[in-house]
Amino acid sequence: MEEVQEKVASLPRLGEPAPDFTAVTTHVTVKLEDFKGSWLVLFSHPADFTPVCTTEFLAFAEIYPELQKRGTELLGLSIDSLSSHIAWVRNIEEKTGVKIPFPIIADLDRSVSTAYGMVHPGQSKTETVRCVFIIDPNQIVRTILYYPLTTGRNMDEILRIIDALQTTDANKVATPANWRPGDKVVVPPPTTQEMAEERLKEKGYECVDWYLCKKKL
Amino acid sequence: MACISTDGTLTESGLKIFRAMSSGPVSPEEVARSTGLPMYRIRGGIRDLIPAGFVVQKGDKYQLTEKGAAMLKK
């Protein structure tokens, strides 16, 4: 009997290269590599002309200038046609005055949504859930967020994560719970007993104990 | 093709890209800087324009062909 093997693509994981793609968008046909050198927020929405997605697009458009200041591009996606995307963004501009400044992938063949695990059949077999992939300038996946169909995303958190990742990369530190730019950062914990003893004697740190020390940048 | 409309004329962003490449070979970064367009738009646009014969690659840089220059004069 012939064995049937189904190829199961592995889903993106943090710290690994983002899955490559070529996709038709509302601006131009893009490849993932076109975004090399910039941070990229790749996000999916369930469908055009739906209420929660419309509030999210208005919110993404609002934070777009802040993303630009952080060297970050925005790329939307849904399993809708290019005509549907164009009609929707034109409708948003007509009804609200807000121009959608970022491209949107028309993923009708589901190639990108499959590679990124954006369809969760328990939520919907025909729509993508609300995914966010934050990809760094070297095209490594740095953050993955999944929201259900009924919950609109928090833009403030997306900006906060980008700030935290860029701060971590620039200073080799970590960021504590609810960290905001300007707050103290977490110093990497010592890795030997000797370093632990020395850490508590070092100046410039605010330590709870040897393993939890913060500092001002 | 994102730089050229269905009526055969340059789009607004296409015109910016063509102008940026009209006076000699330039890198995608230089085109992005002079046009204010994002890098993905420049890279995606150039990728369309090469097989259509409007742009030619010179090392790491790009410039308009005669066909591309003629399009700019339209």
- Which residues of chain A sit in consecutive blocks of at least 5 with pLDDT less than 50? none
Number of domains of chain A: 2
Q: What is the string of SSEs of chain A from the N terminus onward?
A: EEEHEHEHEEHEHEE
H and E string of chain B: HHHEEH
Spatial order of strands in the largest sheet of chain B: 1-2
Biggest interface, chains and residues, is: A-B, 13 and 10 residues
**CATH fold description of chain B:** Arc Repressor Mutant, subunit A
Distance between the termini of chain A: 65 Å
User: Kindly state the mean pLDDT of chain A as a whole number?
Assistant: 94
Strand order of the largest sheet of chain A: 5-4-3-6-7
Q: What is the count of distinct domains of chain B?
A: 1
What is the strand and helix layout of this fold?
The complex is a heterodimer of chains A (217) and B (74).
Chain A: E1 22-23, E2 30-31, E3 39-44, H1 51-69, E4 72-78, H2 82-96, E5 104-106, H3 111-115, E6 130-135, E7 141-147, H4 155-171, E8 185-186, H5 193-201, E9 206-209, E10 212-215
Parallel strand pairs in A: 3-4, 4-5
Antiparallel strand pairs in A: 1-2, 3-6, 6-7, 8-10, 9-10
Chain B: H1 12-20, H2 28-35, H3 39-49, E1 55-58, E2 61-64, H4 66-73
Antiparallel strand pairs in B: 1-2
